Amino acid sequence: MELTDFLEPVSKNSLHLPENSHPLALSETITSYYEKGQFPNLDGADLALIGIKEDRNAFNNAGCRLAPDHVRKYFYRLFNGNFKAKIADLGNIIPGETVEDTYSAVKFVIASIIENNVIPVIIGGSQDLTYANYLAYESLGQIINIVTVDSSIDLGTKKDKINNNSYLSAIFTHKPNYLFNFTNIGYQTYFVDQDALELMDKLYFDVYRLGHVRQNIEEVEPIVRNGDMLSFDISSVRQSDAPATSSASPNGFFGEEACRIVRYAGLSDKLSSIGFYELNPVFDKGEQSAHLVAQMIWYFTEGFYNRKNDFPVKADKDSKKYIKYVVSMKDFQNEITFYKSKISDCWWMEVPCPSGMQTKYDRQHLVPCSYKDYQTACNEEIPDKWWQVYQKFL
C-alpha cells in the first residue's frame, strides 16, 4: 500500500490565497499535494499536515469534518518565524466506507509518516480519531504516553460504542496494550463524573483541573514533555475565543494559553504526533476558531524548530550536558536522581525500573519534571510524578 491510496489532494481553491503571496509566507514554503501524481517527498519534510474529514462518530457535533480546509486557509497565510518551515501538506485522508475503515487508513498513514521521522500534524474531524492515532503506535510496536487537552475525560459509559465522548475507553481496554501513561490537562469538574476521576487515580494516570493549570501554566511544560502524542479538543478553549464546537463553554483556556501549551508540545523531543479536533465551521463566528487553530499550529511549529534535542538518553546522562542531583530522604530506601540540562534548563527525575524491563520502558523511567519537584524531594516529600511511575513498575 502507498500513502496516496488513502489521501486526496488539497483543493487550492478552498485556500483563497492571494495571487501574489509574500515570499516569506508559509504558502510559499509548504510543499502541498495539489494534484494527483505530485505527492510531496517526505524526505525533505519535518512536519506533515493531514486533514481527516470524518465525523460519523461525533456526538452532537456533525460538521466538524469540514474543519481541515478552513484551518489551512488561515495557516497558509501566516509567516515563517525565526525558522524556514519544512512542511509537507499531504492533503486529506479519504473517508472509508465505514468509520473503522477510516481508522485503519489513519493508522497506516500516521505510522508511515512517523517511520519517516516526520511529525504528523492532524486536523480533524472528531476526537475519536485519537484512537486511530494511538493504533499507529501499536503498529510501530512503541509503548507511549498520551496527553489530551480537554474540558472532559472522554470515557463514556459501558453501553457506549466508540465516539468522540468515549474513545478513551477504547484506548484503555485495547489489547495488546501499548499505553504506559495518560494525562488530561484542563478538565472542568462539572463536566466529569466522579467515577471517572476515581478510575484515573486507580490507574495512576494524571488529570489536572483547569483552575490548577491556569494558576501554574509553566508547570504544563514538563507534563506535555512526557507525552508521545497530544490530542487537543477545541472545546477546552473558552467560547469567547473558540466558539466553533457544539460543546463550547464560557469557561476554558484563553487562546494565548492554548498556543502556549502546544508550543510546549513542539519543544518536546519526545512528542511525535499532534492532533486538533472538534472544530466545527458551522458554529464558527467570523472563522475565529479556524484562525486560532492555525495560530496554534504555528506555535507548535515554532516550538519544533527550537527543540534542543537534550532528552537524557542512557548513553549521555552523565555527560557534561547535565547537572546531576541525588536526593536522599529519611525513611525512604530509594534515592531520587534528578538531571538538569545545561542547554534548556529542563529537568528530569529517574524512577528505578525493575531488572529486565529497562529496554521496554527506556523512555518511561526518565520522567520530565520541574524545579518544584526537586524542591519537593529536598523537603522530604516524594514528588507525585515519581510515585505514580514507580507504582506502575511494581
Structure report:
By secondary structure, this protein is α/β, with parallel strands linked by helices. The protein has two domains: 3-304, Arginase, Chain A, CATH 3.40.800; 314-393, no CATH class. The protein is 31% helix and 18% strand. It has 13 helices and 14 strands. Helix 10 (255-267) packs parallel to helix 11 (288-304). The longest helix has 17 residues, at 99-115. It is globular, with a radius of gyration of 21 Å. The mean pLDDT is 95.
Going by CATH, the architecture of the largest domain would be 3-Layer(aba) Sandwich
User: Which structural class fits the helix and strand makeup?
Assistant: alpha/beta
Which fold does the CATH topology of the largest domain refer to?
Arginase, Chain A
**What's the end-to-end separation, in Å?**
41 Å
Q: What level of helicity do the residues show?
A: 25-40%
Rg, rounded, reads 21 Å
CATH superfamily of the largest domain: Ureohydrolase domain
Query: Tally of extended strands?
Result: 14
CATH level 1 name of the largest domain: Alpha Beta
Number of continuous helical runs: 13
In sequence order, what are the helices and strands, one letter per element?
EHHEEHEHEHEHEHEHHEHEHEEEEHH
Can you summarize the main beta sheet? 10 strands, mixed
Overall form:
globular
Estimate what percentage of residues fall within beta strands: 15-25%
| Mean pLDDT across residues | 95
- Count of folded domains: 2
Sequence stretches where pLDDT stays below 50 over 5 or more residues: none
